[in-house]
C-alpha cells in the first residue's frame, strides 16, 4: 500500500530510521520528533559495554531532548545506516540495521586539522508502526558493536 510520497510500507518504515539518523546529523529536533511515536522508548543501556552510562528514555519529547542535548546540537556527526533488514506485517515492522556513527566536537568535523573523533559501529533494533500518515519508531535499542577514537568527544 503506497504511503505519503509514494513509498511502500517497507520503504516508509525504513524512512523512520533514516529520519532518526538524519535528525542527529542536522541537529533537527522537529525531524527527530517525526521519526518517533508519542510513547516511544529508546534503550541505550547497551552502551555500558563501552563504558558509557546511558539509560532508557521514554516518550517522544524526552527522547528528542536526550538526542539533541547529547549529539544533535553539540557535535558534528554523520550517521550512515547500512545492511537494513525490515519485515512488515500489517501496520508494524521489525527492523535491524548497522549504523556507523562518526562524532567530532562542534566545528571540528569539517576541518582536516582536527583529527580527534569517536566512531561507533552500532546495531539498531527497532519496532516501527504506522502512525497516521507516517511510520514511526515505537521502540529502539542501540547496541555498540565496537568503538574507536577518543571517548572524551562524547562528554559535552
Automatic annotation (TrEMBL):
Residues 7-141 form the SnoaL-like domain. SUPFAM superfamilies: NTF2-like. InterPro entries: NTF2-like_dom_sf, SnoaL-like. Gene3D superfamilies: 3.10.450.50. This is SnoaL-like domain-containing protein. It comes from Zasmidium cellare ATCC 36951.
